[in-house]
Specification:
The two termini are about 20 Å apart. Helix 7 (about 125-130) packs antiparallel against helix 10 and helix 8 packs antiparallel against helix 10 (about 215-225). The chain folds into three domains: about 5-25 and about 85-175 and about 225-315, Aminopeptidase, CATH 3.40.630.30; about 25-75, no CATH class; about 185-220, no CATH class. It has about 325 residues and is α+β, with helices and mostly antiparallel strands. It has helices at about 5-15, 25-40, 45-50, 55-60, 60-65, 105, 125-130, 180-195, 205, 215-225, 225-250, 260-265, 280, 295, 300-305, and strands at about 20, 45, 75, 90-100, 115-120, 155-165, 170-175, 250-255, 285-290, 315. It has 15 helices and ten strands. The chain has an eight-stranded mixed sheet with strand order 1-4-5-6-7-8-10-9. Strands 2-3 form a two-stranded antiparallel ribbon.
Length: about 325
């Protein structure tokens, strides 16, 4: 995207927070409803669903329990909904921009900008974080300002970078990434290694900006963050899909495959492979060698793609 396009999207859709509540396997419910809406089906029999491509989602408890309440074995999407479990992650979404047209640093496929969806923690988490970790300043030990995180008070769990082309009607998900959980685990690992040599070492002896006790830090990393660790990538992908469909009105979504994404974006190091294999398949993306039109018509990305042996992407219609 060009900078002007990113700024226009933010200006039109607003950069204020949007509430997004996620619970385990919520994506299964949302994908089922999206599929029925795409087929313009307000009602469908449960037996039809079980015989179709959505059958694998029906085994999830969230849908299996909801389907039990469908009268006469017929699902009506206007009255169909999951029972929200007790353990729900209250999150918020904010919009931002990323990139200055430097492919080597920005890791963008078209040497342009990206729209960023920031998935942020709620105030309850933030209060527990400040009480247990007790950071010395607002720039906490689990953040990196060189990444597209929120820098005005909110704490970003994860983000999704999107390249949007309104001409071709496509969105390319450039990356889904997380700093907070990875860095929190890394910090605790460092402190544990120190404590094998010096059992009384405090977190502050290793990370100066952490004023909390060792016991409180362990509680935060191993207990408070555990629900997020299990669900963050699902939540980020679903938030992106709902935004693309509901706010942008675009149906065709691409997502990088592991090897093609690394080469096309010139990624240094290797991101978690599961983010570019397991996650897209979980959400019903299918692997394709068809080059997204937004890349095929862009002179720079077209040249980069020619240098990649057997490039491929994941694709999904919403």
């Amino acid at each position: 995207m060009k900078l002007q396009d990113v700024e226009e999207v933010i200006a039109c859709l607003g950069d204020e927070r949007r509430i997004f509540r996620y619970f385990k396997d919520r994506y299964c419910f949302d994908l089922l409803v999206l599929a029925l809406q795409r087929q313009q089906m307000a009602q469908v029999s449960v037996s039809q669903l079980k015989a179709g491509s959505l059958a694998r989602y029906l085994q999830k408890p969230i849908l299996a329990n909801a389907l039990k309440h469908c009268g006469a074995g017929v699902l009506d999407i206007n009255s169909f909904g999951p029972v929200e479990p007790v353990q729900t992650l209250p999150l918020s979404i904010t919009l931002a921009r990323w990139g200055e047209g430097d492919r080597g640093w920005d890791q963008t496929s078209r040497n342009q900008c990206n729209l960023v969806l920031q998935l942020n923690f709620d105030s309850g988490h933030n209060a527990r974080y400040h009480r247990l970790v007790n950071p010395a300043n607002d720039y906490g030990p689990f953040e990196f300002y060189g990444h597209p995180i929120h820098k005005q008070g909110r704490k970003t769990l994860a983000w999704v970078r999107l390249d949007i082309d309104f001409t071709t009607g496509e969105v390319l998900i450039e990356e889904i990434q997380n700093d907070w959980l990875r860095k929190a685990k890394g910090v605790l690992d460092r402190i544990n290694r120190r404590r094998t040599r010096s059992p009384q070492a405090k977190p502050q002896d290793v990370i100066r900006t952490i004023n909390g006790s060792y016991e409180d830090l362990v509680t935060y990393v191993e207990t408070e963050l555990q629900p997020y660790r299990a669900l963050w990538s699902e939540a980020a992908m679903l938030a992106a899909i709902r935004f693309i469909k509901d706010d942008l009105g675009i149906n065709t979504v691409y997502y990088h495959s592991f090897d093609t994404g690394i080469k096309l974006k010139r990624v240094g190091g290797a991101p978690p492979r599961s983010m570019y294999t397991t996650l897209p398949k979980q959400f019903g993306f299918e692997l394709t060698t068809e080059v997204p039109a937004m890349l095929a018509t862009h002179k720079h990305s077209r040249r980069y793609i020619k240098a990649i042996e057997k490039p491929s992407w994941f694709r999904r219609e919403l």
